[in-house]
Design brief:
single chain; alpha/beta; Spore Coat Polysaccharide Biosynthesis Protein SpsA, Chain A; eight-stranded mixed sheet; about 55% helix; about 10% strand
Length: about 425
């Protein structure tokens, strides 16, 4: 077989893989229209919770988070707030104590990430008071938590759920087009991934903040053990490989601050990309070793394959370019026309998807109009960053400064 014929065969195979992956995601997106699943309570109990915050130099925002946790519509004696002041050089620990949190200070510059901080903290929890709490919720220092959050998580725990991800919203939606795009990204993920999969009996995944874990799991695991830059992805798919599912709580809302500059977005998404690749290397073997292949395992595997799919799309583009060398000028123009038409369809399709999500989530189009018109650009930037992550797997963890010091009452007006 001639070289060009081999290239065409490979290109067709890769194109089929890309089409399958795209159709799979589109099918699940339509499940966002389903009505939410209602489950019955197994027990009726007010569980004892820990709220855990890992914070590094967050003196500007930590007090407002603690205030929102203290204002939960939940018995005061059933919720304790813990702050891990992780390698702090500012007044984070002092402010957290004055605000009413129990503070653990950690200093270790060789192990710098939230995963290591949680591992260090739970080693102490299991040693000092392993049976004091029924479950814990993890938050980032820049978060604001709606008053009903812990109560919603308690309901899920009463329904028998051991792992639950809450709804991640954005507190600086209308700062600029960058934060608006981040809001659109999370609203889309919330509705078309987590919500849809939970209603289908599949698994959501932990998103780094605003999630609940039963203490039974930590005791069974002997602590928290993640080393990837994205500890949430590694933890999620390790649990799925153990045969557990992560539930979704659409009404348990936590507000998050998102970057407002391209450099911050680049660093954030690059860390996510590198962490995803690290988690893929750790979790795919665990999924492969599962004795029983279930729809949950298959769906988790497909999610983790998003970076190989990205690599496939890059190779396909290269092969498309190489295959043009055998075409006539007229055929090349025709091919370029097809690619231009496909690009226009992608742009219009992505904008339409955004509008659908905003309508489903009852969001104001006017509030994020900058994000709507620039969403294809944002997706393109994400594509480039993820491609760079493939060649930057030794990246170190870097914090992102949070400055949006608002109260939960201001967001709920």
């Amino acid at each position: 077989m001639k070289t060009m014929q081999v290239i065409l065969v490979i290109k067709n195979i890769l194109t089929f893989i890309l089409m399958f992956y795209a159709i799979y995601q589109v099918v699940f997106a339509f499940l966002a229209y389903m009505r939410p699943v209602k489950k019955k309570k197994i027990i009726n109990k007010k569980h004892k919770f820990m709220a855990i915050v890992s914070a590094r130099n967050e003196e500007k925002v930590i007090a407002n988070l603690i205030e929102s946790l203290k204002e939960q519509h939940y018995p005061k004696n059933k919720l304790d707030i813990y702050v891990i002041a992780d390698n702090c050089t500012d007044k984070t620990a002092e402010i957290a104590r004055k605000s009413g949190a129990i503070v653990y200070e950690r200093f270790d510059e060789t192990k710098r990430s939230k995963g290591y901080a949680l591992e260090w903290f739970f080693d102490r929890v299991l040693d000092e008071f392993p049976d004091k709490y029924d479950a814990f919720c993890v938050f980032d220092a820049d978060n604001l938590v709606t008053p009903g959050f812990i109560n919603k998580m308690n309901e899920k725990l009463c329904e028998g759920e051991k792992l639950v991800q809450g709804y991640r919203d954005i507190k600086n939606v209308d700062d600029n087009w960058i934060s608006a795009n981040s809001a659109i990204y999370y609203w889309t993920l919330n509705k078309m991934y987590h919500y849809a999969r939970y209603n289908m009996g599949l698994s959501a995944f932990i998103q780094g903040t605003g999630f609940m874990v039963s203490m039974d799991i930590i005791k069974e695991e002997g602590g928290w053990h993640t080393t990837a830059l994205t500890e949430d992805i590694e933890f999620s798919f390790t649990q799925i490989a153990r045969g557990r599912k992560i539930a979704w709580a659409h009404d348990a809302v936590v507000f998050d601050e998102q970057p407002t500059s391209l450099s911050q977005v680049w660093n954030q998404r690059l860390r996510w990309g590198v962490g995803h690749i690290q988690s893929m290397g750790k979790c795919i073997p665990k999924l492969y070793q599962c004795k029983k292949v279930t729809p949950v395992i298959i769906d988790a595997f497909i999610y983790l394959m998003s970076f190989p799919i990205l690599f496939v799309s890059i190779i396909t583009s290269v092969l498309n370019f190489l295959s043009m060398s055998t075409l006539t000028s007229k055929e090349i123009i025709s091919q370029l026309g097809v690619q231009l038409f496909t690009s226009v369809l992608f742009i219009l399709g992505s904008i339409l998807q955004v509008i659908i999500v905003l309508k489903l989530e009852k969001r104001s189009l006017k509030q994020v109009w900058q994000g709507i018109v620039t969403y294809p650009i944002f997706l393109g930037i994400t594509y480039v960053v993820n491609a760079c992550a493939i060649f930057n797997t030794n990246m170190a963890w870097k914090p992102i400064e949070h400055v949006k010091a608002v109260k939960i009452s201001e967001l709920q007006k």
